[in-house]
Specification:
With 178 residues, this protein is mainly beta. Helices cover 13% and strands 38% of the residues.
Length: 178
């Protein structure tokens, strides 16, 4: 944190715009998507947070360090006009910009090149988006029903956890089923 960066893009169709700032946080959990309204298209990203001004039109541009290495892909801002979340609205930068770490961008690009589609894990739970503590908390109810999708990965993990208990046997960890 504190490392100088430059955000490159074309905010408001102003080509070849460069703004500077610092990395103010790493692994900042943010969400993207949600257009369907049922939570099925929401992605969670551990983003780089920067105070380099990122405005509408910068998305997809590089976030570059002082050695001219691309370290992230500008992707989201906290807009001044919304106050309710991350949006690409026309409110402009208030000093909270987010970039997808370049290693994650490379993985997705390689998947798209090799298979024509990008994959991401789905755990089948709705998160409590108002929770401000460390980590994440499963919500009490999803948009279209229960917070944990029946027969989904989250439900199977909970079921498995409820019916097994780890035991140590001569230095080896085993799982006993009841």
């Amino acid at each position: 944190m504190g490392d100088p960066v430059v955000a490159i893009g074309a905010p408001f169709d102003l080509q070849n715009t460069v703004t500077s700032g610092i990395i103010s946080a790493k692994e900042r959990p943010i969400t993207a998507g949600g257009e369907k309204g049922d939570g099925s298209d929401i992605s969670y990203v551990n983003a780089l947070q920067t105070d380099a001004p990122i405005n509408p039109g910068n998305s997809g541009g590089p976030l570059v360090d002082t050695q001219a290495r691309v370290i992230g892909i500008n992707s989201a801002i906290r807009a001044a006009d919304s106050g309710t979340g991350l949006e690409g609205g026309q409110g402009g930068s208030i000093g909270l910009g987010f970039a997808i770490p370049i290693n994650q961008g490379k993985r997705v690009a390689e998947e798209l090149i090799n298979t024509g589609r990008a994959t991401h894990p789905v755990i089948g739970v709705t998160l409590d988006m108002k929770y401000a503590g460390d980590g994440a908390r499963v919500g009490t109810k999803g948009a279209e029903g229960p917070a944990v999708t029946p027969d989904g990965p989250g439900a199977r993990a909970a079921s498995s956890r409820a019916t097994s208990s780890p035991r140590s046997t001569a230095g080896r960890c085993t799982t006993a089923r009841s």
